[in-house]
C-alpha cells in the first residue's frame, strides 16, 4: 500500500484546529512557538502503514518548511517525500535530480517567475497583503488578511495568469501563484514510475490536492477541507469523504486504508 498525503489540515493541525477530545502532541516549532500538532493515533497509524507499505508526504511546503516537522523525533522516516507543491521530490532526504531536470522543462512552458513577480510588484503594498514569499524559485504566494484584502484587488493580474500558463490557488490566508505544470499529480506520476507501482491512495483537503486525489486509485477528502466547503462545482465522483472532521477524520481515513489492505485488523481506534 502506498499513500500520498497532504500534511497541513490533513495530517497535522495548527492551534486553530485542535481537537480537545483527542490526544495530540506538538510536532513543529517555529520562531520559538509551537505551531503544528498531530494526534497520537495518527502517529501510530503512520508507523503501522510504514511497516506494511509506504506513506509519502505530498505538501505545498518548501523543503525548509517540511524539514521543520519533527517526524524523525517520533521515529518516522520517509524514503520519499514531495514538497513545493510537486516542484521538488526528495528520495532519502536528497533532491531527486531526474525530477529537477523535468521541472526545468516544465517551467519553460510557462512565463518565467521573474517576469510574473515583476508584474505583481504594483500589488504588493495593497491593504491586507501581509507578506510575499517566493518558494524554491518556482512559484510565489501572498499571505492576506481578509478583513482588509479582497481578491478583486488583483483581478487584473488574475486575468493574465492563463495566458502566461500560470494558475492561482486560494488556501486559507495564502494565495498561491504557480506555473501550471507545478502540481502534486505530476510529481506523483514521476514517483510512481520510479517505484514501479500501479496502485496508490491519496489524502487531501484543499483545491491544490484535487488533481492528485483524482489521479489516485482511491482519493480521500477530509470533510472539513476547503476543497468541499469552497468549491461547490467540483466533481468528487469516485472520491471518498471522511465522516468525521479534524484530527478524527485523519485517523478515520488512515485506519480505513490500513485495515482494508491488511489480512487482519492490525490496529483498533
List keywords for this structure.
single chain, Rossmann fold, 269 residues, 5-stranded parallel beta sheet, 2 domains, Gyrase A, domain 2, 4-stranded antiparallel beta sheet, alpha/beta
Adjacency order of strands in the biggest sheet: 4-1-12-13-14
- Roughly what is the average pLDDT, rounded to an integer? 95
CATH homologous superfamily designation of the largest domain:
HAD superfamily/HAD-like
Specify the biggest β-sheet.
5 strands, parallel
What is the CA–CA distance across the termini?
A: 20 Å
Q: State the CATH class of the largest domain.
A: Alpha Beta
Overall 3D shape? globular
Tally of structural domains: 2
Please estimate the helix content: 25-40%
Organism: Asaccharospora irregularis DSM 2635
InterPro entries: HAD-like_sf, HAD_sf, TPP-like
GO molecular function, one term: phosphatase activity
Protein name: Hydroxymethylpyrimidine pyrophosphatase
Structure description:
It comes from Asaccharospora irregularis DSM 2635. The protein has helices at residues 40-52, 63-67, 97-107, 113-120, 155-159, 184-195, 210-215, 226-229, 246-260; strands spanning 2-5, 24-30, 33-39, 54-57, 80-83, 88-91, 94-95, 129-135, 139-144, 166-171, 174-179, 201-204, 218-221, 239-241. By secondary structure, the protein is an alpha/beta fold. The strands form 4 sheets. It has a 5-stranded parallel beta sheet. A 4-stranded antiparallel beta sheet has the order 8-9-11-10, with no helix packed on it. Helix 1 packs parallel to helix 9 (246-260).
